[in-house]
Specification:
Blueprint: H1 8-25, H2 31-38, H3 42-48, H4 50-119, H5 124-137
Helix pairs in contact: 1-2, 1-4
Length: 138
């Protein structure tokens, strides 16, 4: 016994309902959900309603592109704002680290000078200069 197939109007109504529901719920609209709503097997649906399926897919892709474009532009703006904040923070950190390195370099030089004066150590450059001066005078 053969079951009666849904009319074109019933198929279109089910497809529109699936598109609306999927958009509301934030999920992807599928032909399988339409087939389940109508109680038609997959093969039968594809064999008898290829034009409706093409229309459904084009509508679904159009909705996705519209949603993607809107989301992409707002996402890009959010990303740019976030990146600008991060860039500003990184520049502040860089200035802080550069100042710390400069201060550490000055502290190191001062500590080396102090250590040499305490130990009575003469630097090699001073000794070479003295040695060179003696060689010139003799």
């Amino acid at each position: 016994m053969n079951r009666l197939l849904p009319t074109d109007a019933q198929v279109r109504t089910a497809m529109e309902a699936e598109l609306g529901e999927s958009q509301f719920l934030g999920r992807r609209a599928t032909v399988s959900n339409v087939e389940k709503q109508l109680g038609v097997t997959h093969a039968t649906f594809y064999r008898n309603y290829p034009d409706h399926i093409e229309w459904f897919k084009s509508q679904r892709d159009g909705l996705r592109e519209t949603k993607t474009t809107a989301n992409d532009s707002s996402k890009r703006e959010d990303d740019l704002a976030r990146l600008r904040r991060e860039n500003t923070d990184r520049r502040k950190q860089l200035r802080t680290y550069a100042e710390a390195i400069r201060q550490l370099t000055l502290d190191k030089a001062a500590l080396e000078d102090e250590l040499q004066s305490w130990e009575g150590v003469t630097s090699l450059e001073e000794r070479r200069r003295r040695k060179g001066d003696r060689a010139v005078t003799t």
